[in-house]
Amino acid sequence: MSQPPAPIPGQPAELEELFEEHHASVLRAAYRITGNATDAEDVLQTVFMRLLRRPADAPGMENAAAYLHRAAVNAALDLVRDRQPAKNQPLEAHMSHLVEGAAAAPDRQQEASEMRAFVRRAIRRLPPRAAEIFALHYFENYSNQQIASMLDLSPSGVAVTLHRTRARLQEEVRNFMGEVS
User: Fold this and answer.
1) Residue 3 half-sphere exposure toward CB, CA atoms < 13 A
2) How many C-beta atoms lie closer than 10 Å to residue 177's C-beta?
C-alpha cells in the first residue's frame, strides 16, 4: 500500500515541518556538489524558497525526500555552472583520489588544485541530465537502480549515461594532461 502524496507546503507550518525533516539531507547533497558550505546553504534556501512560491494548486509530491534531494542536486549543479571560473571551490572532500595532503610538495598541491578545477569545469559542460546522473552516482553514492527510480529512467539507461559521461570526462582529462588518445 503506497502512502498518499505529501502535501505541497502552502502553509508555513507545513513548510517548517518539511524543512525540519529534510534540511540536513538537502544541505549534504548541495555540499557534496558545491564543495562549499556557504553555497550549500544558498542551495538549501533556494530549494525551500521555491517550495514556498509553488502555486497552491500544484500537485503533491509522491516522495518528498527524493523530490527535495533531486531539487538540491539540480540547484547545486546550476550554481556550479553559473559560477565564474575564478570562484570555483576545490573538490577535496569529494574527489579523494585528487586530494594532496598538506605535506605534499607544492608542485603536487598545485597540480591537484588545477585538476580539481578542470574536472569541475568539465562537469559544468555536461548536458544537464548527464551531470545530474554523474553527481548522484559519484558525489552522492547512489546506485544505478536508485538513480533510475529517482529520475524515472531504466537502470540500463543510467548505466549507459554513466559510461558515456565517464568516457567523455576521461577523454577531456587525457587531453588536459597532454596525452595522446
Assistant:
1) 8
2) 10
pLDDT tens for 110-145 read 777 787 778 778 888 889 899 889 888 888 888 999
Domains in the chain, CATH or no CATH each: 1-89 (1.10.1740.10)
Percentage of residues in the chain having pLDDT higher than 90: 13
Q: How far is residue 109's CA from residue 115's CA, in Å, rounded to a whole number?
A: 10
- Whether the full predicted model's pTM is greater than 0.70, yes or no, is no
**Looking at the DSSP assignment, which residues form a beta bridge with residue 6?**
61
Grid coordinates given for 56 = 497552491
- Ranges assigned E (strand) in the chain: none
pLDDT mean across residues, the chain: 78
Q: How confident is the model at residue 24 (pLDDT cuts 50, 70, 90)?
A: very high
Distance, CA of 76 to CA of 132 (rounded, Å)? 10
What pLDDT is attached to residue 146? 92
Burial class (CB in 10 A: 0-12, 13-18, 19+), 164: middle
Torsions phi, psi for 6 (to 5 deg): -70, 140
Provide the grid cell at 106.
Answer: 607544492
- Helices 64-82 and 106-124 meet at what angle, rounded to 10? 110
CA end-to-end span of the chain: 53
